[in-house]
Amino acid sequence: MLNDKIKEHLTNNSSPINWESVHSARESFLKYRKNLKEIQVEVAFIENRIVTYNNLTIPMRIYTPEGIGPHPLVVYFHGGGFVLGDLSSVDNLCRYICKYSERIVISVDYRLAPENPYPAALEDALASIQWACNYAGEINAESTNIAIAGDSAGGNLAAQAAILLRDSKEVSINSQWLFYPWLDFKLNSKTHKLYGEGYNLTTEELEWYTSFYLPHHVDRDLPNISPLLQKNLNALPDSIILTAQYDPLQNDGLVYAKALLDAGNSVDYTCCKSLTHSFLNMTGEIDEAREILDQIVAKMKGRNNKATLERY
């Protein structure tokens, strides 16, 4: 059953985003995110930095926890359908992860569509991870214990990066954390039919995002766009995947978790009952969301010494 507070919120705010234009959608999205009640915490140090790597210039926000270090590292990619969102839209979430996982968090302000359609966001994601590995010492981080994470569209970027950097000699990704990830652009799964309207994120909105992110000549069924269609999923990092019950993208995470398991990977999969897409941004008002976030950071902290999923 849908969480009562979310149900009330959806009843009173049927469409908090103004979809008339990209500009209006971005403005209303950020306003909506600011109005969501999240747990706010302080960390030891926050730095806004612009890095250059592989001829790309990428803004980042780096969160450092208390302690001497060097610290394990998380590279985080925000959601927003590749069109919306920025560093501020996941600021509270990154602070929380940093403080309670005791990891440095690098939040990546990757390029957005339609100004920069596919593959710009993916190029930025790959370059930011490579930069983090090569310059970990510069930010007091461990280059040998790196996690990548993302929600929704950011989960797509994290999943793609894990695959594309699998054989890299300079990058070693220890784990990937995919929160209600968007992994299939066909948008025709059973959960789109069940939850594609009326539950915070709609299939129609996902089509709107896709129209800006993917140029007309790009096939949305390409594996490098939809990770769910990748044929070789062997030898990938340990995967922690969370989906929401009332989410059109629920099937994306579930099917991907099964595919990763079938390929011989370690997978920790949870479908979060009673919740909708973006529940990690509701931790200040939804007790279940706060509990799940606490479980996430506890697992992440437990892997600070490279623990494997078998311990959980």
UniProtKB/TrEMBL annotation:
Keywords for the protein's UniProt record, in alphabetical order: Hydrolase
A Pfam entry, by short name: Abhydrolase_3
The organism's place on the tree of life at top rank: Bacteria
Ranges in a coiled coil: none
Catalytic-site annotation from UniProt: 152
InterPro entries: AB_hydrolase_3 (IPR013094), AB_hydrolase_fold (IPR029058), GDXG_lipolytic_enzyme (IPR050300), Lipase_GDXG_put_SER_AS (IPR033140)
Keyword set includes Ligase: no
Domain Alpha/beta hydrolase fold-3 residue range list: 74-280
PROSITE patterns: LIPASE_GDXG_SER
Alphabetical list of Gene3D superfamilies matching this protein: alpha/beta hydrolase
Matches recorded under PANTHER family: AB HYDROLASE SUPERFAMILY PROTEIN C4A8.06C (PTHR48081), ALPHA_BETA HYDROLASE FOLD-3 DOMAIN-CONTAINING PROTEIN-RELATED (PTHR48081:SF8)
Protein family membership: Belongs to the 'GDXG' lipolytic enzyme family.
UniProt name for this protein: Lipase/esterase
